[in-house]
C-alpha cells in the first residue's frame, strides 16, 4: 500500500465500467470531468467520427464556438478588454440543455446584430471615404485649374511632338474656361495611392506620347481603407488632354492602376457649390458613423464580461459530448455504457460524484459503477506534487514508465541536482542560482500568471529543480573551496610552507586534515591543477560506479513486483558480479590509494597500469598496493568472464524449460484475443467484494502482453536468444562506455573552474588595479554580466544537459524500460491548462 501512495512506482489502477442513464449522461460526465480521475476508453474506435451518436451536438457547439471567436475578434478590434474567467468558478459550471439553447439563441442574435452593424459601418465608411476623397479633389483641382489657365500654351504650337498644332492658341481674348472649351480640352480628376504615383505618371507619358498635362498633389491627411482598416496615403491628380479618345484611354489606364476617378465641373461656381455640399454631407455622415460605432461599442462592452465565461461553458460541453461519443449506446435500456481507468484509491471519490449527480438531478435510476478485473495493461499514473512534478517531467521526456515499473523520478529529485552541482560547483554561482530559485518559488502564485514567453515558462516550470541545483552547487562549491574561482578560508590551513634552497620553491607540508572541503592552500599552488584533476577524475568514476550500481539493483524490485524472481539470479546477479569485479575493484583500489600514505608520491602505483595489466597480464602487478593483489585480480577476471555466458544463457534456458513444462501439462499456446483474469505479474488482485469481474472480447484492441518472457505471441526460442545476446553484448560494452561517460563530471567541473578564473583575472582584477572608482564600477558590471550570461546561463545549460544524459542513458537504461502510456484523465482542469498553453 505504501508504493501506491508514493513515487516509487505508479498508482494501482482499476478498470471501471459505468452504466449511465441517457437523460442524466451529460451531467454525470460533467461531474466526472470536475473530479478528473477517470480516463475513458474509446469503445467506438472503429466508428467514423461523423457517424457517432452525438455528432450533431458537437457541430452545434462548434458553431457556437465560432460565434464566440467572432465576438472575441470584434472586441479586440474595438479595443475592448475581455475579462478573463476562472475555469473553476461557479459561473463556469456546465449548463442544462435549456440554458445551452438560450446561450445559442443569444449568440446567434448577437452575431447577427454585430454583423449588421459592421455592414452598415462599412457601407457608411466607404461613402465617407468617397466624399473625403472628393473633398480633397475639389480643393486641389481649384489650384490645378488656375495653373492650367495660365499654361494652356504648353499644349500649343510649341509642343515637340509630331502633333505640334494640338493646342493652338487662337483666341487670346477669351477667358480661361472658354479657351479650354475652344480647343476641346478635356480633363480627368481623381486620387491614387501614393506609392503608385511614379509608375502611373511614366505609363501615362509613354502611352500618350507626352500629349497631356498632368498635375498632382499629396493629401496630407491619412485615409483609412474601410475594407482592410489599413491607413493609406494618396495623391490627388488632374490630367488635361485633347480629344475624347485620349480621355477614354486615360480613364482605362486609371482603372488599371487602381485610381479612383471623381466628376469635377469645369465651372468655378459649380465646383464651389459642390464643395460646400460635400462638406455638409460629410458632417452628417460622420455623425451617423459615430452613432453606429458607439452603438457597436456599447453592445460589445455589455457582453465583454461574459465572453470568456461563455467560451468556458462551450468548451466544457464539447468535451462532454466528445467523451460521450466514446461510449456504447444501449438502445433497449436507454443508457450509455462507458469504460475507463481510474486510480484504485480514487474509486470512492468517483462513486461519490455519481451519488451527487443522482441527488442533484433527482433521477430515479442512478448511474452504476462496476470494477472489472482484466488482463489489459493499465496506463501509468504517477503521484506528484508541485515539487516533484518537474523531476517527473524529466523522466517522462525519456519515456513513460510501464505500469508497476520502478519510477526513476523519485531518485532523480536528489541525483539530478547533485550531478549537476558536481559539474557546476562554485559557491558564488550557486548563490546566484539559488537566489533565482527562491524568488520563483516564493512568488510562484503571482509569477504563474505572467505570460513572458516560452523561455520564461520553461524556467518557471523547473523552479524547484533550479532551487535544488543552486543549493547543491553551494555545497559542492564548499567542497571545492571555490567562490567565483577564489578560495575561502573557513578554517585555518593545515599546510605549513617552508622555503627549500635546493628547489628554490616554497613547499607546503601537511600537518593534519582540513576541516571541510579543499584546503585553501591549494589555490595558487603550482601543482593545483594536477591535484584537482586527479581528485575530480577519480571522484567522477566513484560517483558513476555507485549511480549505475544503484540502477542495476533497482531491477530486483521490478522482478519481484512482476513475479519474475528467478530473473534476479539469471540477470541481476551476473550483471552485478561483472560490473563489480571490474569497476568495483577499480573504485576499491582508488579509495585504498587515497588512504595509503606515500612519502614519495612519484613511487605510488599507477591505477591505470594496474587495470590494464589486470587483463593483459593476469597475475602480474607492477607495483603492489596490498598483499595478494595478483591472485585477486586473476579471480576477478575469471569471474567477469564466467558472468558473460551466465547472462547469455540463463534467462533463455529458464524460459524454454518453463515453456516445456506448460506444454507438458497439456496447455497450448493461448490465442492473442482470449480474455484471461489478471495474474500476479500485472499486480491486480480483486479487492472489492461487490465488484463485477468480467472478461471482454475487445481486449485485442489493447496491447497483448501474454506469452513467455514478455514478448507476446507464440514462443520462439531463437528470437529470445537473439534478444538476450544483444542485451548481453550491450551491457558488457556499456559497462565500459558508461563508466567513461561519467568523466564528463570531471571535464565540465574543470572547464567551469578555469573559465571562472579567466573572467576574474582578465576582467575584474585589471579594473581593481586601476584604483579608479569609475573603472572599478564598469569592470565589475562587465564581469558580473559575463558571469551571469556565460558561467551561470550557458555553462549551467551545458551542465543541465550533461546531467540529463547521465540519467537517461547511463542510469535509467539499467532498469527502466519506459514503454508505458501516460494516464490522461478526463479533466476540465487539465483541458483548460492545455488550452491556456
Can you walk me through this structure?
- The strands form four sheets. Strands 1, 2, 9, 10 and 11 form a five-stranded antiparallel beta sheet that branches.
- This protein is an alpha+beta fold.
- It has 22 helices and 13 strands.
- α3 (97-150) packs antiparallel against α7 (268-324), α9 (389-398) crosses α10 and α20 (744-769) packs antiparallel against α21 (773-811).
- The chain has helices at residues 25-35, 55-77, 97-150, 176-182, 197-207, 244-256, 268-324, 347-361, 389-398, 409-424, 427-442, 444-447, 454-461, 463-480, 528-561, 566-595, 607-616, 629-664, 717-741, 744-769, 773-811, 828-836; strands at residues 13-21, 39-40, 185-193, 213-218, 223-224, 231-232, 234-242, 260-261, 328-330, 335-343, 368-372, 495-500, 505-510.
- It is found in: Membrane.
- Pfam families: V_ATPase_I.
- Its main location: membrane.
- It is a multi-pass membrane protein.
Features:
alpha+beta; 4-stranded antiparallel beta sheet
* Rg of Cα set: 42 Å
SSE-based structural type: alpha+beta
Shape: extended
| Total number of beta strands | 13
Low-confidence stretches: 153-176, 670-712
| Main beta-sheet annotation | 5 strands, antiparallel
Helix share of residues?
55-70%
Mean pLDDT over all positions: 83
Count, helices: 22
Distance between the termini: 36 Å
Strand-residue proportion? 5-15%
Amino acid at each position: 500500500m505504501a508504493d501506491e501512495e508514493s513515487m516509487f512506482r505508479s498508482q494501482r489502477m482499476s478498470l471501471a465500467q459505468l452504466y449511465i442513464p441517457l437523460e442524466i449522461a451529460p451531467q454525470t460526465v460533467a461531474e466526472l470531468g470536475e473530479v478528473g480521475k477517470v480516463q475513458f476508453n474509446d469503445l467506438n474506435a472503429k466508428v467514423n467520427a461523423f457517424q457517432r451518436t452525438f455528432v450533431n451536438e458537437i457541430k452545434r457547439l462548434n458553431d457556437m464556438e465560432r460565434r464566440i471567436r467572432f465576438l472575441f475578434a470584434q472586441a479586440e478590434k474595438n479595443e475592448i478588454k475581455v475579462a478573463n474567467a476562472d475555469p473553476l468558478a461557479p459561473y463556469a459550471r456546465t449548463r442544462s440543455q435549456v440554458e445551452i439553447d438560450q446561450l445559442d439563441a443569444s449568440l446567434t442574435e448577437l452575431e447577427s446584430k454585430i454583423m449588421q452593424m459592421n455592414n452598415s459601418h462599412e457601407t457608411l465608411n466607404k461613402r465617407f471615404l468617397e466624399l473625403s476623397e472628393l473633398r480633397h479633389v475639389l480643393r486641389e483641382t481649384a489650384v490645378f485649374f488656375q495653373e492650367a489657365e495660365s499654361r494652356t500654351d504648353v499644349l500649343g504650337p510649341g509642343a515637340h511632338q509630331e502633333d505640334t498644332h494640338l493646342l493652338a492658341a487662337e483666341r487670346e481674348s477669351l477667358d480661361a474656361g472658354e479657351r479650354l472649351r475652344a480647343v476641346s480640352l478635356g480633363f480627368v480628376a481623381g486620387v491614387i495611392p501614393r506609392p503608385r504615383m511614379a509608375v502611373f505618371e511614366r505609363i501615362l507619358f509613354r502611352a500618350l506620347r507626352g500629349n497631356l498635362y498632368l498635375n498632382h498633389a499629396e493629401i496630407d491627411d491619412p485615409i483609412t481603407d474601410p475594407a482592410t482598416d489599413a491607413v493609406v496615403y494618396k495623391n490627388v491628380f488632374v490630367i488635361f488632354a485633347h480629344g475624347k479618345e485620349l480621355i477614354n484611354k486615360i480613364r482605362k489606364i486609371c482603372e488599371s492602376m487602381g485610381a479612383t476617378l471623381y466628376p469635377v465641373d469645369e465651372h468655378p461656381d459649380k465646383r464651389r457649390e459642390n464643395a460646400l455640399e460635400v462638406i455638409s454631407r460629410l458632417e452628417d455622415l460622420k455623425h451617423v458613423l459615430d452613432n453606429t460605432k458607439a452603438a457597436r461599442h456599447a453592445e460589445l462592452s455589455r457582453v465583454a464580461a461574459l465572453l470568456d465565461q461563455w467560451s468556458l461553458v462551450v468548451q466544457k460541453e464539447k468535451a462532454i459530448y466528445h467523451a460521450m461519443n466514446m461510449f456504447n449506446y444501449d438502445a433497449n435500456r436507454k443508457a450509455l455504457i462507458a469504460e475507463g481507468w481510474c486510480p484504485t484509491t480514487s474509486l470512492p471519490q468517483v462513486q461519490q460524484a455519481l451519488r451527487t449527480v443522482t441527488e442533484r438531478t433527482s433521477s430515479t435510476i442512478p448511474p452504476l459503477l462496476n470494477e472489472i478485473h482484466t488482463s489489459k495493461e493499465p496506463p501509468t499514473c504517477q503521484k506528484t506534487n508541485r515539487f516533484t512534478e518537474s523531476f517527473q517531467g524529466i523522466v517522462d521526456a525519456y519515456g513513460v514508465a510501464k505500469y508497476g515499473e520502478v519510477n526513476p523520478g523519485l531518485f532523480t529529485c536528489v541525483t539530478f541536482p547533485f550531478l549537476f552541482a558536481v559539474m557546476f560547483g562554485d559557491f558564488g554561482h550557486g548563490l546566484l542560482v539559488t537566489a533565482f530559485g527562491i524568488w520563483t518559488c516564493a512568488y510562484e502564485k503571482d509569477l504563474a500568471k505572467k505570460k513572458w514567453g516560452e523561455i520564461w515558462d520553461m524556467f518557471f516550470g523547473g523552479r524547484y529543480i533550479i532551487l535544488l541545483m543552486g543549493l547543491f552547487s553551494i555545497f559542492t562549491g564548499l567542497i571545492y573551496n571555490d567562490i567565483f574561482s577564489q578560495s575561502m578560508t573557513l578554517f585555518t590551513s593545515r599546510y605549513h610552507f617552508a622555503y627549500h634552497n635546493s628547489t628554490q620553491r616554497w613547499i607546503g607540508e601537511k600537518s593534519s586534515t582540513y576541516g571541510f572541503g579543499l584546503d585553501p592552500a591549494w589555490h595558487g599552488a603550482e601543482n593545483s591543477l594536477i591535484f584537482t584533476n586527479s581528485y575530480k577524475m577519480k571522484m567522477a568514476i566513484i560517483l558513476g560506479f555507485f549511480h549505475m550500481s544503484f540502477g542495476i539493483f533497482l531491477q530486483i524490485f521490478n522482478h519481484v513486483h512482476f513475479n519474475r524472481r528467478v530473473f534476479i539470479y539469471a540477470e541481476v546477479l551476473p550483471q552485478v558480479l561483472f560490473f563489480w569485479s571490474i569497476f568495483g575493484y577499480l573504485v576499491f583500489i582508488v579509495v585504498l590509494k587515497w588512504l595509503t600514505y606515500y612519502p614519495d608520491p612519484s613511487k605510488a602505483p599507477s591505477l591505470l597500469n594496474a587495470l590494464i595489466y589486470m587483463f593483459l597480464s593476469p597475475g602480474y602487478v607492477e607495483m603492489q598496493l596490498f598483499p595478494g593483489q595478483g591472485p585477486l585480480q586473476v579471480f576477478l577476471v575469471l569471474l567477469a568472464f564466467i558472468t558473460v555466458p551466465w547472462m547469455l544463457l540463463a534467462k533463455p534456458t529458464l524460459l524454454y524449460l518453463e515453456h516445456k513444462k506448460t506444454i507438458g501439462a497439456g496447455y497450448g499456446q493461448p490465442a492473442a484475443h482470449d480474455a484471461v483474469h489478471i495474474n500476479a505479474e500485472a499486480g491486480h488482485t480483486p479487492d472489492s467484494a461487490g465488484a463485477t469481474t468480467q472478461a471482454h472480447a475487445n481486449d485485442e484492441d489493447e496491447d497483448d502482453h501474454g506469452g513467455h518472457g514478455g514478448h507476446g505471441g507464440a514462443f520462439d526460442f531463437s528470437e529470445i536468444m537473439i534478444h538476450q545476446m544483444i542485451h548481453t553484448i550491450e551491457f558488457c560494452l556499456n559497462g565500459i562506455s558508461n563508466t567513461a561517460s561519467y568523466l564528463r563530471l570531471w571535464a565540465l567541473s574543470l572547464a567551469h573552474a578555469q573559465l571562472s578564473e579567466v573572467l576574474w583575472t582578465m576582467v575584474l582584477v585589471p579594473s581593481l588595479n586601476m584604483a579608479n572608482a569609475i573603472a572599478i564600477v564598469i569592470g565589475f558590471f562587465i564581469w558580473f554580466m559575463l558571469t551571469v550570461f556565460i558561467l551561470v546561463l550557458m555553462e549551467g545549460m551545458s551542465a543541465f544537459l550533461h546531467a540529463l544524459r547521465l540519467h537517461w542513458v547511463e542510469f535509467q537504461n539499467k532498469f527502466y524500460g519506459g514503454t508505458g502510456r501516460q494516464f490522461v484523465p478526463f479533466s476540465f482542469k487539465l483541458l483548460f491548462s492545455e488550452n491556456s498553453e
